[in-house]
């Protein structure tokens, strides 16, 4: 029993471990919501109106064209997050610089023997005792995946995967297109939803009416919740931080990896604006920007002492 004077800290990141058993059920749930929405918007309400002619047909085109475009981008981004490895520490990885001595040659394994068995509090080299290996900067261990993830943001049950260095952009695009799609669906089904509360007769079968009602409620709920997540992650990208880092450094006034909003944005989306809105990177960005690989990140020299 916790009394009133006792503060119980709750680590939100441990919540995901309780949902590990859901596995691929979450993917089926996402596809189920997409299926219900598609049936309500395309097959029940706006698809049949294409043959009516006149203003109804015009409205249907204005709804269905962006609906299918956004749905395609949503699914492309979603499955890119699901099937892209977020980034693992390469076998026998060693940092390419000894920050204590200012040397740029990779250190020998013998030089880390004290790190693995001794006190880590005086070393800038980070070590994972669960994986029994060194950790690159901004790398964290995921208790759900059972391994260290490069620039780990969080473990997301909706994508049944960790969100890390190699798929964080895809996750953000998934949030972005989900918000646009669910908002479009909510607005397009609003007249039908209002009609449920009118006295007049509503055309359609009971199953189609129930599906329309369910699709509206689901998309409204997702639009509001995803909007909150999207705003949060926009602020994280602007500060070049992750969800875990924001939690860990909440008492740190300055952040060593915050290089300004433009450079922070480019470290996630790349420099080629042709690829900003698709879940891919240009070959040139992958070649020139090591931070996209999750192992090396530029930082402010005056704040190098921070250890994350």
Give a nutshell description of this structure.
By secondary structure, the chain is mainly alpha-helical.
What does this structure look like?
By secondary structure, the chain is mainly alpha-helical. The chain is built from eight helices and six strands. It has helices at 25-46, 55-83, 113-117, 168-195, 206-238, 243-248, 261-269, 283-288; strands at residues 126-128, 133-135, 140-142, 147-149, 154-156, 161-163. Strands 1-2 form a two-stranded antiparallel sheet. Helix 1 (25-46) packs across helix 5 (206-238), helix 2 (55-83) runs antiparallel to helix 4 and helix 4 (168-195) packs antiparallel against helix 5. The longest helix has 33 residues, at 206-238. The chain starts with 24 loop residues before the first helix and ends in a 20-residue tail after the last helix.
């Amino acid at each position: 029993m916790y009394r009133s004077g006792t503060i119980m800290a709750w680590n939100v990141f441990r919540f995901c471990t309780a949902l590990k058993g859901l596995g691929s059920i979450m993917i089926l749930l996402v596809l189920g919501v997409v299926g219900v929405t598609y049936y309500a918007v395309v097959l029940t309400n706006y698809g049949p109106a294409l043959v009516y002619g006149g203003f109804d047909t015009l409205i249907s085109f204005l709804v269905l064209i962006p609906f299918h475009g956004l749905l395609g981008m949503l699914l492309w981004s979603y499955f890119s997050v699901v099937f892209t490895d977020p980034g693992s520490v390469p076998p026998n990885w060693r940092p390419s610089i000894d920050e204590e001595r200012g040397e740029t040659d990779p250190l020998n394994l013998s030089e880390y023997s004290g790190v693995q068995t001794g006190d880590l509090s005086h070393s800038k080299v980070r070590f994972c005792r669960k994986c029994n290996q060194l950790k690159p900067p901004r790398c964290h261990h995921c208790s759900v995946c059972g391994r260290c993830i490069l620039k780990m943001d969080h473990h997301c049950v909706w994508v049944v995967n960790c969100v890390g260095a190699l798929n964080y952009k895809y996750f953000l695009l998934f949030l972005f297109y989900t918000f646009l799609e669910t908002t479009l669906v909510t607005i397009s089904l609003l007249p039908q939803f209002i009609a449920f509360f009118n006295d007049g007769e509503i055309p359609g079968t009971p199953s189609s009416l129930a599906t329309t009602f369910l699709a509206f409620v689901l998309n409204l709920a997702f639009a509001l919740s995803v909007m909150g997540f999207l705003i949060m992650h926009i602020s994280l990208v602007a500060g070049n931080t992750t969800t875990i880092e924001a939690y860990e450094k909440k008492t740190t006034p300055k952040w060593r990896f915050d290089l300004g909003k433009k450079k922070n944005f480019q470290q996630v989306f790349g420099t080629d604006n042709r690829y900003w809105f698709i879940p891919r990177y240009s070959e040139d960005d992958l070649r020139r920007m090591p931070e996209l690989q999750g192992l090396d990140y530029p930082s402010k020299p005056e704040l190098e002492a921070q250890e994350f």
